[in-house]
Amino acid sequence: MAPNKGDNVVVSNMKLERMLSMKGGKGEASYANNSQAQALHAKSMLHLLEETLDGVQLNSAEIPFVVADLGCSCGNNTIYIVDVIIKHMIKRYEALDHHHPPPEFSAFFSDLPSNDFNTLFQLLPPLANDGGSMEECLAADTHRSYFAAGVPGSFYKRLFPAKSIDVFYSAFSLHWLSQVPECVLDKRSAAYNKGRVFIHGANEITAKAYKKQFQMDLAGFLTSRSKEMKRGGSMFLVCLGRTSLDPTDQGGAGLLFGTHFQDAWDDLIQEGLISSEKRDNFNIPVYAPSLQDFKEVVEAVGSFSINKLEIFKGGSPLVVNQPDDQAEVGRALANSCRSVAGVLVDAHLGDQLSEELFSRIESRATSQAKELLEKLQFFHIVASLSFA
């Protein structure tokens, strides 16, 4: 997040890349324990992913096939999806030539350096070809059929050598901006998001600043991938989206990071625990684009052909086993917020005040549990792009 001119902002944009991550570890509020809903959303889109994979050009089996997951985070979801991708491509190679084994496969797991790669790598099954051949590796269902590596860095910049990747996959990540627009945190700017910690419900000028940042970031993402992808490769992207044409209506993201989350910050101010300036120096760097927002950038960059671009109803992000238990719903919302934004809040407020904030979120969400279950629905933009 960018420092205001003359103001002391705890989280700067320079630090955001080094710090932003889903909450690591395996605790109650960790991403690993709060990503089941995303797993269900991802599985519901598998047929669209497989359509994308069917369009990937098959090269000689002597050339390794390379998959990259961008924004991999640290849960089981990414392991599952990469396994799906590689198994699908194995079937395609086998259908092409039964007499020769498929190529060797590599998977790169990429996220910001602050990501909990340790937890992710502990979830990886062992490589099946330890001391054996890759054919044996590919035949082992309970083991990993690919070589794996972590690649730390921002996907808004270059990450891989030129023409080295066959398939890029990124889910639930591209709505995270590289930074909060500087003008949003500048008191002297008309885009100053006073009284709010998110774009939802903000004024039109603030919304335009967020949209411009999203467009710049997505253009950087696509330009970098166009240099790194092999000819004939494909990309499957999923990010939060919105159905409204109005960018200040962020839909499900607005309910997650607005309403109870916003009100909890206001609670801390009213109780004298933080100043209003402290709140106003914090904004969530998320933008849920419309289909038109997304399409405009892809067409402007011009490196990729759009095979499919649609809005997909993803359902609720809450992990709730007993929907009639209001307390469980309240905890689920607080844990969901904390799993994705807790690292930023901790850095801005400190651990003690962060605990107070999420306690207020849980309390408010508990009292509105029924409404949350009825209204908190996410929509995702699903994009299948090919590189000719």
Automatic annotation (TrEMBL):
Keyword Metal-binding: yes
Signal peptide: none
InterPro entries xref list: MeTrfase_7 (IPR005299), MeTrfase_capping (IPR042086), SAM-dependent_MTases_sf (IPR029063)
Name of a matching Pfam family: Methyltransf_7
GO biological process, alphabetically ordered: methylation
Gene3D superfamilies given in the database record: Methyltransferase, alpha-helical capping domain, Vaccinia Virus protein VP39
Example GO molecular function: methyltransferase activity
Protein name: Indole-3-acetate O-methyltransferase 1
Organism: Cannabis sativa (Hemp)
